[in-house]
Amino acid sequence: MTTLTARVPAFAVCALLAAVTVAGCGSEAAPKKSEPLPSPKAKASGPPTLAPGPQGLAPVFKNGVRSEKVVALTFDADMTADQGKRAARGERFDNPELIRTLKQYKVPATVFMTGRWAEEYPAQAKAIGADPLFEVANHSYSHYAFTKDCYGLPTIAPKDMKADVERAFKAFEKAGVADAVPYFRFPGGCYDRTALRALAAGGVTAVQWDVVSGDAFATDADAVAADVLGGVRPGSVVVMHCTRSAAPATEKAIRTIVPELRKQGYRFVRVSELIGAAGPAAGPAR
Questions:
Q1: pLDDT digits (tens, 9 = 90+) for 169-178
Q2: Rounded distance between C-alpha atoms, residue 59 and residue 52, angstroms
Q3: Pairwise CA distance, residues 250 & 39, whole Å
Q4: Pairing of strands 267-268, 236-241
């Protein structure tokens, strides 16, 4: 990273993150030595990860190499630590129809899941993790921001960041997800050096994106599809959502996106394949 704080643009996905929650950065002191995060697949024989970034910070992956027409669709399964009452009143933070459509179209995908989502929908979490089309990655337990001023999200203290990620992996295990991959997506996409330092000991690769679907609160599936189709390049990572109440047009948009990209010669892959193919040539995002 070349600046102290990295931010994604203020796009619709971040409006989702602010709207579905209610509402600092810590010291730059050297971190205490800690044990690696307990990701089941964070092993030499598991999925590929990037080498640590500058000064040993956790690496950040944004897109794969641009030489092959492959694209990774990623879906954030968002639910914050304090949304249980809303779920109890009937609000649905899942989207099983979207998962069925991905299976119908045989589309590999990476689902970035919060630990709280896995607690609310353990059977779905287990089924997604067991399906060879999909891989489950970490989107934190709480879905609280890892920096200040992240689109209205509550903020988690630097001393609690590692524990929050660990808690998500444990929630996956409890739900029956045996093989979560060692990839992490920051809530809101917001991170800085303090956040990357907090995660460095865990061996995880932070995964961002280079294509924004605009599916947050969208009701026009054609517009979502147009945003994706207009942004995809070889090696792209697309961010979408697996949250029925806040991204209701996503499933319908997939029915346009997938056939069109295949018509253009694209092949769908999971994030692990992009990272594996990129190797040291891609390097961390800046």
A1: 999 999 999 8
A2: 5
A3: 29
A4: unpaired
Which residues are paired to 61 by β-bridges?
Answer: 207
Q: Structure tokens of 276?
A: 């594996």
**122-171 pLDDT, tens per residue?**
999 999 999 999 999 999 999 999 999 998 999 999 999 999 999 999 99
Instruction: Record the pTM.
Output: 0.84
Calculate the alpha carbon distances from 84 to 15, 80, 139 in Å: 20, 8, 17
What value, to the nearest 5°, has the Cα angle with vertex 276 and ends 3 and 52? 35
The position carrying tokens 């517009």 is: 223
| Beta pairing partners, 5 | 192
Burial letters 152-178, b for 16+ CB under 10 A, else e: ebbbbebeebbebbbbbbebbbebebe
Residue 90 phi, psi dihedral angles, 5° rounding: 110, 0
3-state secondary structure the chain: CCCCEECCCCCHHHHHHHHCCCCCCCCCCCCCCCCCCCCCCCCCCCCCCCCCCHHHCCCEECCCCCCCCEEEEEEEECCCCCCHHHHHCCCCCCCHHHHHHHHHCCCCEEEEECHHHHHHCHHHHHHHHHCCCEEEEECCCCCCECCCCCCCCCECCHHHHHHHHHHHHHHHHHHCCCCCCCEECCHHHCEEHHHHHHHHHHCCEEECCCEECCCCCCCCHHHHHHHHHHHCCCCEEEEEECCCCCCCCHHHHHHHHHHHHHHCCCEECCHHHHHHHHHHHHCCCC
Please list the residues that pair with 76 across neighbouring strands.
Answer: 112, 241
The percentage of the chain sitting over the pLDDT mark of 90, rounded to a whole number, equals 76
Buried b (16+ CB within 10 A) or exposed e, 86-97: ebeeeeebbbbe
